[in-house]
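Researcher: Good morning. I'm working through a list of sequences from a screen, and I'd like to move beyond sequence-only analysis. For each chain I'm collecting a predicted structure so we can compare shapes side by side. This is the next one on the list. No need for commentary yet; just the structure.
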Amino acid sequence: MDEKRTSGRKTEKPRSKAPKKTTPAAVKKSPQGDTVFALDIGTRTVVGVLAKKTPQGCRIIDMETVAHEKRSMTDGQIEDIKSVAEDIKQVRRELENRRHITLTNACIAAAGRALKTMRASWEYKLPEKTVTAEALKAAELDAVRRTCADFSQKNDVAAFYCVGHSVVSLTLDGFKLQKPEGHRGERLTTEIIAAFLPANVVDSLCSAVDAAHLEVSGLTLEPIAAMNAVVPPELRLINIALCDIGAGTSDVAVSRDGSVTAYGMATVAGDEITETIMRELLVDFNTAEMIKTSSEKEITYKNILMLENKISREKVDEIIEPAARDLARVIAKEILDANATPPQAVFLVGGGSKLKCLPKMTAEELGIDPSRVITGSRGLLRGIIAPEDMPLGAEHSTPLGIAVSAGEGVSYDFTTITINGKKLHAPDTNRLTIFELLGVAKLKPENMLASAGKSISFTLSGEKITVRGEPAKPSEITLNGNTASLNSTVTKGDEVVISPAQKGADGTAKLSDYFDMSEIRAFTVTLFGKKIHAGRFLVVNGRDISLDRRISDGDVITLSELETLGKLLDANGVTEPVLLNDGIADIDTPLKSGDVITARDSEPVARQEVPKDNLPKEEIPEQTDNPTITVNGIQAQFPRRADGKPPIFLDVARAFSDDPTALLSHADTITVNGRIARLDEEIHNGDVIVIL
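Model: Good morning. Structure tokens for this chain:
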């Protein structure tokens, strides 16, 4: 419940300093014990309630309300944590001083801002054949955990908290039962509706409570709390819709067949009425609030132009009528979305429900008898025992409901745990595991598992070789300094350190891992007038390579050893007698750069310059006027351009490939004399070029 009028005891503004008086001895304060401290942190006010559970109901001890001095909250979301924390401290201080008690923990409720719900049924195998109270609770908690896990698979688990749930139905071995306790059976199916809120909404509430030096001991959803105060279980057989209209949000809960069956929320509430008055009468927010809530027949106010004005109550009602109609329309839509059909009765609670015209308008929008829509009052607060002189009304449904929920144990306990050095709050479902904390710590479950690095496979001289990636580094989890697992349970105050798993490095290999690159030497010879490679060199995917490089997945690598005349002839399928440099040579004769091999019965072949358009890759022609360069470790004499100018780098690339652009785009290294090459860079005698 967001909007509340100041009630119980209102904290006064500090007065000017009075003469110093003798202070009596301080009264010793008692510990909090089993006293419930319920905090309703609303858009307009903070309400604190002290209560105790008794056999007759929830006994209210005291209540304190502090209004925010500035708009530190919007639509139920805290914007100024420090300011809200100061208001909480003030509420706490007043209650402690009046009741001589030390308050250390508080139960809170969250507004349904960006609320998501999930309805699910889960089967639970009974450990015994008889349904006990313990088995009922265990089945309920199991259903909550499994619903949360299902929700996390469909949503970003790190972005939401489960803040409440309701049991919709219980089925024992296929038969629905209202009260299965004591019955015999084997399988109990629990149907629940769970409510989830964005983590930032809950975290901001917890941070404000922390800053006020209190510990969050319980959390529930505001409409759940209001339901517990206004529509107790014995009334839930009736199809009732409750709408808690605060300042920033209007939260809906629906009961049917003995259970709470649906929730809803809209960010339209009392502030829209106040803002309408601001615009129409040119007043600030606080003045508009005063005009809205005043019961005087004629209201005196001062506008932003510092002009004093008077307005009748009837005129105010006329001004707010369109905004009230819009609010009634939104409330009706939320109720119909949650209930599918108009309910049998509607209870409007919260400070925003005090608009006199709202019940009638809501009934009209729902199409039901106006007598079936009522505004909450003290008489509607069921199970509440409070002093007669304590003013209680519609605006107190949520703070009193928080107290009732805490006393009945239907709010979520909150556990404070340190993860990776950061203090976190997590809802405790009596069996909280480290796995369930991953979302709270904004760690994705998949980060706890990692794969080994990718393997590479290649063919080396006809043999298939696989280089496997390195294994993954497993995740590491410690709980209070001891090794733990995702299934380890945690309790309040525990310290958890989680190191995500790390993927293994991919498999890598280089040519030098398999060959002595110092022995790789390639050169060019002429065989029957054609320039070809000779010597000892590597062929990778059909391309001659003489320098070291990384091996890629799928590479086919062979070693060519054409260092003698016989090996060269065999490799090229030559069987007829040949001459080496115009002379007869033995097949074991070593070859060298520039050798010319001709048929023995042919005319001697004079060495000549190779035509520019027929230059082979990585050749070594022996010419005089053309620059001699080294390309990928192989010497070659490269022809000048047609205009007699030195060749440029792009000419060399064209000699290597019909598609030099593709060649260069896939190369890892493109340098001239160790520098990054330019396409138009001139190539001169002695230059060393690398294209790999």
